[in-house]
């Protein structure tokens, strides 16, 4: 009985903390954000399991590209005329604060039509662990992109892996359970 309660606590604490870690993904992996080599951003996005709090890192030559967050209609039409947010730094980190779709295109004429666009989807039932390896390094200047609409810009994240507030909640729940078990006589020597 004591061993099974201890094992349960370890699973709650260890598993809960893992569930709440955010990851950073370099869009296009080694290719980055470009049209050279015809990267398939649809396949790239499908191969990932994005969750709330994750960060997208767009790396590109700012002389030749940009990143525009657009509506679904503008994404489908490759319309760069009215973006919700425009990023132009060449190294933009964008945190995903909610479930749903995020649509990004390159606003340089012809680039979106050539496939430089990505639909990021966080599903209601997204798994806790990424399908592919996230970046292992710390990003400098999270959300460092020069957003033309600062009010709509995502919140800063600061690092490639950050513990979300839910980890604190899981830890507090586990501590409360441990306290209860210990003082109810379940963990006596």
Instruction: Describe the global form.
Output: elongated
How many strands in all?
A: 9
Oligomer: single chain
Mean of residue pLDDT? 75
Largest sheet: 4 strands, antiparallel
Keywords: Copper, Glycoprotein, Metal-binding, Signal
InterPro entries: BlueCu_1_BS, Cupredoxin, Phytocyanin-like, Phytocyanin_dom
Organism: Canna indica (Indian-shot)
Domain Phytocyanin: 23-124
Structural description of this entry:
This protein folds into two domains: 1-20 and 164-189; 21-162, Sandwich (Immunoglobulin-like), CATH 2.60.40. By secondary structure, it is an alpha+beta fold. It has helices at residues 2-19, 41-46, 72-77, 165-183, and strands at 21-22, 24-26, 55-59, 67-70, 85-87, 91-95, 100-105, 117-122, 162-163. Mean pLDDT is 75; it is low at 15-19 and 127-166. The strands form three sheets. Strands 5-4-7-8 form a four-stranded antiparallel sheet. Strands 2-3-6 form a three-stranded mixed sheet, with no helix packed on it. It has four helices and nine strands, in the order H-E-E-H-E-E-H-E-E-E-E-E-H.
Question: Any descriptors?
Answer:
single chain; 189 residues; alpha+beta; Immunoglobulin-like; four-stranded antiparallel β-sheet; three-stranded mixed β-sheet; 4 helices; 26% helix; elongated
In short:
This protein has 189 residues and is of the alpha+beta class. The chain has four helices and nine strands. Mean pLDDT is 75; it is low at 15-19 and 127-166.
